[in-house]
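Re: beginner question about structure tokens

> Can someone show what the tokenized structure looks like for a real chain? I only ever see the sequence side.

Sure, here's an example I had lying around. Input first:
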Amino acid sequence: MNTEKTDFSIRSLIKTLLFGVLIISCDNSSSETKFSREVIINERADFEKVNIQLKTTVFEQFLKPTKITHTDDYIVVSDRATPKLMHLIRKSDLTYLGQFGGIGQGPKEVSLVFDFKRPLRPNEIIVNSIGDRRIAFFDLSNPKIKESNELNIQPDSILQYAFINSEIVYFEFSNQNSFISTPITKKEKFHEIDIASHETVNSWGTWEGMLEDPKTPSSITISVFQGQLKTNKIRSKFGYATLYWDFIEILDLDDNSWLRLVGPDNLDHNYSIDYSPGYPMHSIGEGNKLGYIDLFLGSELIFGLYSGMPDRGAHGREIIIFDYKGKPVKIIAFDKPVDSFNVDEANQKIYLLSREGENTGIGVYDYDF
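And the corresponding structure tokens:
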């Protein structure tokens, strides 16, 4: 068994890739489409910063809440320790309504909520259960909900996606017939996969050249650059925010442009490749700080939940906001750790899953920019 560890210093390479404004032409490997690429660097001094004392409503029913999303009428919070998958809260007055979502392998069940996908229909939530590779679609239209602690809300449908590509971890629907993902062993970053044929119909970008050693296994590359993949409401833009770095990449399908936003701290990630388990494993070094924990793509603005703190639990205290030209808009700094957030653009509110001592509650921030 090979017990060798290979160490890399990649700060210089990342500076070469990132530190500057670049306009280059790249080939799409599937369709031969040309697209432009721009890299914009922002420092903390470039942002207006607002410090907020966040008021939260704590719910004793929350045990191990993980993610937050919303519909027109409700806030939904996933939980990994409750008898049902999710909590339902009325949006207008933050009244707790109950739990829903069966846990299991049955025809109307999933094992857990890994994350929420951007809905395809109004008042829908889409649950990605990565353990059993199922996607559950829930219709939360107001007339269908009987508001009581005995909520009988079941998914309208379940999509099993293990047969499509067992390597898919992060994805968003591009339409009802396909989704865009970042498969873990492909050289291209973004793949559009047709649900019916299971085939890649388009791809953009490459992982190659992101790391110093060209022989780095692709599984290590995707682990080093792992993060959140999100789309905007009309699915014209797809964004990828990195956990161990502080950059966000935006693929714009309208004009075939690629925007990389770097900052505010220009983080470096120290790591090694550990072969002792019998396969290459990403081993995190000391002194690292986390980058982006969560991401939301709005119609005009990009919202990133940012940590900038040592890797001692994936939470952030700042939401960093850019526009789609890369211009820094604002940093909203909260006095409490935030685990997840979602933006209600219609009402200009940000819903935050925030810790209040030993408990977790929901905070609401009204914005006007």
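Each token stands for a local structural state, so reading them left to right follows the chain. The radius of gyration is 20 Å.
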